[in-house]
Amino acid sequence: MNGPAIAATGLRRTFGPIVAVEGLTLSIDRGEVFGMLGPNGSGKTTTIRMLCGLLAPSAGTATVDGVDVTADPELVRRRIGYMSQRFGLYDDLTVGENLRFYAGIYGLRGEEREARLAELVAELGFGERVRQLAGTLSGGWKQRLALACATSHRPRVLFLDEPTAGVDPAARRRFWALIYEFSQRGITILVTTHYMDEAARCGRLAFLSRGHLIAVGTADEVREQFGQPTIEDVFIELQRRDEGAVA
Amino acid sequence: MSLFARLRASPVWPMLWKEFIQMRRDRLTLGMMVGIPAIQLLLFGYAIQTEVRHLPTVVLDESRTSESRALVDAMRNTGNFDIIGAVPDRTALDAAMHSGRARAALVIPPDFMSDLRRGRTAVAQMIVDAADPLASNSAMSGAALAAAARARVIAARGGAAEPRLEVRVRPWYNPGLRSAVYIVPGIIGVLLSITMILVTSLAIVRERERGTLEQLIVTPIDKTSLMLGKLVPFVLVGYIQMSVILLLGRLLFHVPFRGSVVALYAITLTFIVASLGLGLFISTMVRTQTQSIQLGFFLMLPNILLSGFMFPREAMPALAQWIGLALPLTHYLTILRGIILKGVGIEHLWPQVLVLAGLAVLFLTLSVRRFSKRVA
């Protein structure tokens, strides 16, 4: 399939008098690992939610895997995987049951489902943990399970909203190894993060500030654009400008 | 895709599977859902006494004389009976009583006046719906009062000292006048409405609070499957609760079951679905489990006080009666008592069944409309 994996034009979302996202135009290629950065409240989550069909845009258009998110949100949902910082796991179900449930919701049945479940368990190395209640897993394993649940239907685009919040560094490293694997298989990944080392792992970055997209490019391009030595400095500079605007 | 293949691929199956596993794991809630019926049954098994006036009453006047009309007036003057009309024969009287339209019926035999004239004891009959012992108590005292009043008048006129007029009370449906018989079927209704409304609204709001609802919304699951998956397990819980109460009521309080079990279980579905629909509707309005519980309790009070569960609705002011009519429980109580105590079937209860079915459709439609697959 040709065309960008994600394309947004003039995307806007308001909550009453508050403008959460304003005039966002963006194009992400297939197989990209695309990072979205910005201070809290800059509109990252709102943007992802609009692209997933969780929120209706107030204005503008967006397509994901070539499908218009406002016209056919249900088709979009079949093609994407979504994982938020809240993971969306059932604590009172086991690892295996969580996987089986989400695979079932995505329409996998019978042998096809069993094969896919076995594959996911092996790929993510759950082993004996399959029979463990999800609520008793450590943060890192919960995160892996959430990723497995969000990808049981082999989505073409993966949205990760602060997927590594509250997870230890070793687990974060393993998580990123998985993300690269997905990317190599041609899956497009849009990830938001507050961790600068993670930002550095992304192919391209977008910076959001008060609902506006203010920079897009590789880490080097963004640093040069703002004249800062590191991505972290860019981030802090942005936050400073935000706070200046508020005060 | 064939219909079978489409049915098999429906997300309602994994949804149901998940709900049943979660229900099984939540031992405390599960235990409460079965334990509460038993506890409530014991708590409410005791009598609750109130005074009841204005029982809707029909008259079967086979005498059609000045004396019979005078007796009807005397009954009306006690304030315990509202004469809502005359019935032409026994069949019509039975129908009025079975349907619950009349709670009492005065039968005056053809020879009532001639008996009085000849100095024989004239006997009239007051049939009372004793399924509600409170109502029948007041009916009995009212009937005795009216008969005594008439007797005095007649005696004064005829110069004789001894009263020659007698009104015999026939308590129908619950001859022993045991309040447990009246209360137990009601407990089924009260308990079902509490559990169905509260548990449903909690089940959805819990998913919202834990963030799993957001995750579900980004999947291709449709609204109907999502809601069906949530509701169907509770229908089963409702039937289990009802069975527990019926069984214990029989064993502990010797409550009879006069009607058709099949009819009761079938008709109960309309009430369960109406209550689940209301719970679902609540869940679309609230954000947290706490709010959900608060609203649930807010609804519980009118359900207990105004539905006729504890206090006969005839004793209430008009406004309270009107509010009662809007509650699904009020109509279901008529059905429960009708089938269990009076042994009547759908032929007398269809108006209530229709109301419940209407409420079920209304609540479900409203909920599906309000529940949007968006987060804000």
Any descriptors?
heterodimer; A: 247 residues; alpha/beta; 4-stranded antiparallel sheet; 9 helices; 40% helix; globular; B: 376 residues; 5-stranded mixed sheet; 5 strands; 67% helix
Write up what this structure looks like:
The complex is a heterodimer of chains A (247) and B (376). Chain A contains 9 helices and 10 strands. With 247 residues, chain A is of the alpha/beta class. In chain A, helix 3 packs parallel to helix 5. The longest helix of chain A has 16 residues. Chain A is globular. Chain A starts with 5 loop residues before the first strand and ends with a helix. The mean pLDDT of chain A is 89. The model of chain B has no long low-confidence stretch (mean pLDDT 82). In chain B, strands 2-1-3-4-5 form a 5-stranded mixed sheet, with helices on both faces. Chain B is elongated, with a radius of gyration of 26 Å. In chain B, helix 3 crosses helix 10 and helix 8 runs parallel beside helix 11. Chains A and B meet through helix 2 and helix 3 of A and helix 2 and helix 9 of B.
